[in-house]
Specification:
There is one protein chain. Helices cover 37% and strands 24% of the residues. It has 251 residues and is α/β, with parallel strands linked by helices.
């Protein structure tokens, strides 16, 4: 059963065609990186997959179930999670509280209002386990606003993992990070459970080629190239339209 199958997906906004007849599928455990210039339709495609936007045409299947018209929360329950271009955290809460809320979000106890969240042992235990696994225990009581931007990006990934995601969408995870923090976040992504399927939008070509099993190139909402990184590096259309010959050779 494939985690994601997209068939002839299109999205237009008052005559502007943001995504145009896009079709692809992803195998379980595969790492697929989407690249393309600004305005290529990458984030719009993510919004369609996660249910933020309805498609104009086409179909979306998650884990064998058609979800084209299902709301986002129903898709989340199937095992999909995402991060955003801009961090989507609670800056005035601690790191521990942010992860705790993420764990609670997919737990049956999320609607229990008469007890403190911390009274539910399994939720607290899972929160502690995630913090320990990724080496954030000593920062657990720090307000998120006081953490570096790179650490905040890592926390977003952990929050997605808190939802037990089987398909994780990462939208420009390294955007705005200095080189050292890009390396740290890239290493974190590489260490993720190989059973988790990843769909990644990435602007940094070094990172894209490092992470990808397969790459999809978008231009003006259309797929113009698809294949393993070594094929994309030498694709003349990609070199001309997006990367530039020097950029591909040096990536």
């Amino acid at each position: 059963m494939k985690p994601l199958v997209i068939e002839n997906l299109s999205k237009s906004f008052e005559g502007l065609q943001a995504v145009w007849d896009v079709s692809f599928q992803i195998e379980a455990g595969e790492r697929v990186v989407i690249i393309g210039p600004n305005g290529a339709g990458k984030t719009t495609l993510f919004n369609l997959i996660t249910g933020v936007l309805p498609p104009t045409e086409g179909r979306i299947h998650l884990f064998g179930e058609e979800v084209t018209h299902l709301p986002s929360h129903r898709r989340t329950r199937l095992g999909i999670a995402r991060t955003f271009q801009i961090t989507n955290l609670f800056p005035e809460l601690t790191l521990h509280e942010n992860i705790l809320l993420a764990v609670l979000g997919t737990h049956p106890r999320q609607y229990v209002m008469h007890k403190a969240v911390t009274s539910f042992g399994p939720i607290v235990e899972k929160t502690q386990s995630l913090l320990s696994e990724w080496g954030f225990e000593e920062n657990m009581h720090t307000l998120v606003r006081n953490l570096s931007y790179g650490m905040q990006r890592q926390i977003e990934v952990i929050m997605a993992l808190a939802c037990d995601a089987k398909l994780l969408l990462l939208d420009e995870a390294t955007a705005g990070l200095p080189p050292g923090e890009i390396s740290t976040l890239s290493s974190m992504i590489l260490k993720l459970d190989p059973k988790i399927t990843l769909l990644i939008i990435e602007h940094d070509m070094n990172v894209a080629f490092q992470l990808a099993h397969r790459m999809i190139v978008l231009q003006n909402g259309r797929v113009i190239a698809e294949g393993p990184p070594e094929k994309i590096k030498v694709d003349s259309k990609v070199q001309e339209i997006y990367l530039g010959e020097e950029g591909v050779e040096n990536a």
